[in-house]
Every structure is written in structure tokens, then in C-alpha cells.
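Input/output pair, single chain:
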Amino acid sequence: MDAHELLPKEKTLQTHELLNDAYKVLKLESRRTPMHELISTMLSHRTTHADEEKAYYRMLEQFGDWEGVMNAPADELAKAIATSRYPEQKAPRIQETLRLIKEERGEINIDFLQDMPAEEALAWLTKLPGVGLKTASLLLLFNYKKPVLPVDTHVFRVSQRVGLIGAKVTANKAHTLLLHMLPPDPVVLYNFHIHLLWHGQRICTWHKPKCEACVLNGICNYYQDVREKGIDQAA
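Output:
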């Protein structure tokens, strides 16, 4: 089969089915509270999960609750989250986000998003400082089961290599393109996101992808264009 002959939507659905078989279908369950998800995802930028967790729990241990974090001296907050990269940038963004939530809602709680349409909730979240489309989508899918699709670096890389999206598509545009090629079912979107993330971490790695072990190589543009021809390159 010539991978290039498949239409993007058909290839996206085949990718979803093949990865479901490889990794098994997962239940969509919240991994943490909405505020935890929001602030931890802000902390996670260019930071390992372990260091993100250290920063999150150290911050709350030192300042007690979200009110304490919001009112802390910015330099002290930056020190508390120092295991997260760029703490001096993240500290004021976290505090401004907490202030904006409290000013608009009267409390530091975002459960009102449950009752908002997905597009409206995305627009509200992405107005917050340091909250991009990926962070907003993660929170809305994981916590409120909204039909949105987070695209992180692994999902983006695998999607481009396989040929679900074009080489010139931006990460932000990929959120919309991939979403529209999948059923608007939060469980499907969750599995697609998690499976592509795992696949990018374990098989379709940035450096020396394990193409021979990949269940997608029969429909993958990169495999047919590069690896089958014996060209050894990382991307």
C-alpha cells in the first residue's frame, strides 16, 4: 500500500484503530482536580513530570492554598517552584491567573467550565496568561470530558510523520485539523491523544524512531519515504 494514497481522515481513523489494538482502549477518568490540572500544566512546560510534581506540592506546602499562592511574594513563589524550568516567568503568570479567576468568579474555582460549550470554554481559558491551546484542551478533555483534542509535541510529531497533517501545519492548527477527522466523542479523543503520546515516547521518538517495531509503518509516509529506502535520519 502506498501510504500517500490514503486520505488524511481515513488514515487518522486507521491510526486510531491500530493504536487502540496496540495499547488497549482506556477509560476517560480525571487524573487530578481541575485547578491541579491547570496549574500543573502551566508548570510542566519544558519540565519533567517528576520536577513538575515537586514544584506543585512544594508550592502548596509553602503557601497553603490558592489564596496563599496568589498573595505570596513573587520571588518566594519562584523559589518554591524552582524545580520547574523558568520559574521566574511562571510564578507571576500563575499568580495573575489566580487573580483573574477570583476577580471574575469570586473564588478560585473553575468548575463553571463544566456548563460552557467547548469553544467558549477554550476561549475563556486561553485568555489567561501562560495558558495556551494545549493546556486548555488537556483540562477540558481530562476533567470535563469536552470534545477537544490536546496536541502535544509527541502527538504533533507522530501525526506529521504518519501523514495525518501536512509538514507546514502548525501545532495550533493541528488541534483543529485532527479534531475534525475524529468522531466528537471524548473517549475517542482521549484515547487518540494518550496513544499518540505514548507512541511518540516509546516508538516514534524524535531521535532514531523504532520504525520496524511500529504498528503504523504500513500507512506511514515517513516510513515509506525514508526508512524503507535505507535513509537513516531522525525526522
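Residues 150 and 193 are 7 Å apart (CA to CA). The chain has two domains: 3-27+150-227, 34-144.
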